[in-house]
Amino acid sequence: MRRALPFALLLLIWPASATATTPTLTLTGPKATTYLHTVDFAGRLSPAAPDARVRLMRGETLVATTRARPDGSFRFKVDLANPGPFHAAWLTARSNDVTVRIRPSLHASLVGSLVAGAPLKLAATLAPSEAGRVRVQVIRGGQVGFDRSFAGGARVALGTREVGTVRVRLTTLPRPGYDTVTRELRATLRPPNLSVGMSSPAVTDLARQLAALHYAVPSFSSTFSYDLVESVWAFQKVQGLDRTGAADAVLWARLQHPRVPTARYSDPPDHIEVDKTHQVLYIVRDGQITMISPVATAGIAGYYTPEGKFAIYDKRAGWDTSPLGVLWNPMYFVGGYAIHGGDPVPPYPASHGCVRVPDFVISRLFVSEPYGEVVYVYS
After folding, report:
1. Residue span of the structural domain in which 41 resides
2. Are 242 and 302 in the same domain?
């Protein structure tokens, strides 16, 4: 006759058997990845339960499911968009947490024309948008002129008044679980194509650059006047460029590396030179050219502008009638030949023999150039 086991011995046996069959889950994954990059999570169910349907969870949200292999191992392939934490679950069993740092995607571009004065915008998008804020810094000449942050991306209108290089630095201010991402965009704003009648801040910049090179320019204005066209012609003549009277890419580039003319004569140190080949007039002070003006010398059949060394012997304020026509503020240097005003001054020889300069130029020369001033005229 078999004897029954004592009740106390049963209590010692059954808890040990139940503990041995309680399932456990482990989970491993990458430490970091980029947004929507495919990653692997791997784990093991123990004891093995072949074909068990294991779930990958992000908090209470189902991310993916897979079947356990006969040995209890399992694997998830996931296009990861969030940092977690993640865990594996089967029935009531739950694994350890795995948190993966996410490098978000920061797309940024400059939209618009890379021309000074034209609209230019920064368009930046952070994905996922909940990854944090985007800090935008606009840098010119090494100085930060704009510094703000935006949630999930940015749309910023950039100032384009100034010609030159603009840098846009973008830095994410990440939320927990996301990495910092930086981007830098760089653009060089070129001057616009300018012609008579146009208005732009670049017109004033053009006039200032010409004046810095000693070309006679009218009073500074944002409107491209006909007087400024004549100044541009003078520059184009000296530089050997096509005499278009417009500011194009070629002219802007030459302004950065111009040919600097020198006076042909040094005696006396203060004098006037008329270069018929280039159709320009030079005011020379202490042997240095201090002003360059466009001119039109003789260009009509049968007429000639004399060459040689002369001197201003007469000045007539206002209109004066001479054998060569009616002249404005003439300064006579030989016979009936004078340096005088008379718009327009085309970019080619067109006078009866006098040296014609723009009206805004003669108004200055008539005051500044004295009787007896030496005038050299040459080809």
Report:
1. 19-102
2. no
130 and 154 both lie in a single domain: yes
Looking at 256, 284, 299, the residue that finishes a domain is 256
pTM higher than the cut 0.85: no
Distance of alpha carbon 203 from alpha carbon 166, whole angstroms: 20
More confident residue, 221 or 162: 221
In this structure, is residue 223 part of a structural domain?
A: yes
For the residues 105-130, what does the mean pLDDT come to?
A: 92
| Alpha carbon distance, N-terminus to C-terminus of the chain | 143
User: How far is it, in rounded angstroms, from Cα 10 to Cα 363?
Assistant: 123
14 found inside a domain: no
Of 278, 197, 290, 193, nearest in space to 243 by CA: 278
Residue 122 clears pLDDT 70, i.e. is over it: yes
Provide the residue type at 205 as one letter. Answer: D
Could you tell me the sign of the dihedral formed by the alpha carbons of 213, 218, 224, 229, in that order? negative
**Which residues are 38's β-sheet partners?**
79
Residue at which a domain ends, from 40, 72, 102: 102
* pLDDT confidence of residue 256: 85
pLDDT at 116: 80
